[in-house]
UniProtKB/TrEMBL annotation, chains A, B:
InterPro entries: Homeodomain-like_sf (IPR009057), HTH-type_TetR-like_transc_reg (IPR050109), HTH_TetR (IPR001647), Tet_transcr_reg_TetR-rel_C_sf (IPR036271), TetR_C (IPR011075)
Native organism: Streptomyces doudnae
PANTHER family: HTH-TYPE TRANSCRIPTIONAL REGULATOR RUTR (PTHR30055), TETR-FAMILY TRANSCRIPTIONAL REGULATOR (PTHR30055:SF149)
A Pfam entry, by short name: TetR_C_11
DNA-binding region: 45-64
Domain HTH tetR-type: 22-82
Entry GO MF terms: DNA binding
GO biological process: regulation of DNA-templated transcription
Keywords from the named record: DNA-binding, Transcription, Transcription regulation
Name used for this protein in its record: TetR/AcrR family transcriptional regulator C-terminal ligand-binding domain-containing protein
Length: 204, 204
DNA sequence: GTGTACCGATACGATTCAGTACCGGTACAC
DNA sequence: GTGTACCGGTACTGAATCGTATCGGTACAC
């Protein structure tokens, strides 16, 4: 359940009503996200997830009322910052680092975003879960990198290109599959940062 | 039928086996694309399209064998270059013009791309139709703009930022809804070109 | 031990939708 | 007129899939 984080030190697993251990829950979440990436949101079925994790549909429906709620829970559980902790002291190197980190997750995240991109327009909870899981943390980390660069005086606070850096990074990341048929890898993104983003910021 | 372009001067409409006029066909195509934008590819139903155009399912299935083929045909029919004919003699102005043109179509095209983004992975014909309709023409036109700029000597042929211009334009176009919750309008894209693309190309 | 609460399996009803089949009606060719 | 070929409407089959209900089994609490 979504409430189980509230009551759960380790040994208390015994006290838990549910026999679904956190590890088991992870299996469910991994399975459903993988199915979403594979087949698209609409084509994901509870039966499919149940089969692939060898549990019964009943078990899934006991824990989560509906498919959207299930997927949203899975998304929330997958939340993690891809590139926090990047802090080299140089804006250019930080951006290169972010590009590299983004490129490493590119395939999985992009497929997920792609697969959910439209479903999200119809379900508020799903939309928010997606933003919290894949969008907001990255944007925040990126803005933090930029903020530090401004603070160090590497770029003017009102530099017009600043506001577009996140959109550039994620935009290029997401459209490369469409334009070139392959996911943006770290090399591609780093070259992009060096060829376009840094020059635009005046960091040659 | 897909073959009707081959046999059709004007008056020959009489000779046509089909009573589906090109205008009527347009209605079908517009309706199905609108449904795709609205509900997503998977949720589009032949029955829905039939109802919204007041024809019968039979009629649709007589013309197109399956749903993917129907949607692909609709996409192909929607093919049109958004920004050919932009040629001001200045690379910077051409790019501004392209940005403005792209921004004007942004909502419709982005929604379509979003809605089809995943379905396309499972159906080759659909994928190709989508590329031909929404991706390739724009890319080609953009590359042509850049080529002319190079030819005029406004930017070096091997300038590293050149290769990323199309990806940036379409990337920013497509992710703005995700990041900021609204489609990229012409103003946004023109400002982006001026703040980031032109500086990166050394065209202050 | 005994009881409780959850598990997995399976079966079920309801719904939705792709695609087919059949119908009577009608516009146009000749 | 008569025939042909297509139209729109409706009904149908068959396959998924949602979500519910039922059932026997089992791990853990006490």
């Amino acid at each position: 359940m979504t409430s189980q984080a509230a009551d759960g030190p380790d040994t208390v697993t015994a006290t838990r009503r549910s026999k679904i251990t956190p590890e088991r829950e992870r299996e469910f979440f991994d399975a459903v996200l993988e199915q979403v990436r594979e087949c698209g949101y609409d084509s994901v079925t509870m039966e499919g997830v149940a089969a692939s994790t060898r549990c019964s549909k009943s078990t899934l429906y006991r824990q989560w009322k509906t498919k959207p709620q299930f997927v949203a829970a899975a998304l929330r559980s997958a939340r993690q910052a891809r590139f926090t902790g990047i802090d080299t002291g140089s804006l250019a190197d930080d951006l290169r680092g972010a590009a590299r980190a983004a490129g490493e997750w590119s395939g999985k995240d992009t497929r997920l975003l792609q697969a959910l991109g439209h479903a999200v327009m119809q379900d508020r909870e799903l939309q928010q879960a997606l933003r919290e899981a894949l969008v907001d943390p990255e944007i925040a980390a990126l803005r933090e990198i930029l903020r530090r660069g401004v603070e160090r005086g590497e770029v003017a606070a009102d530099h017009p290109a600043l506001e577009y850096v996140p959109a550039q990074m994620f935009g290029v990341l997401r459209v490369r599959p469409v334009l070139e048929g392959e996911y943006a890898d770290p090399e591609y993104l780093v070259r992009f940062v060096e060829a376009a983003v840094l020059p635009a910021l005046g960091l040659t």
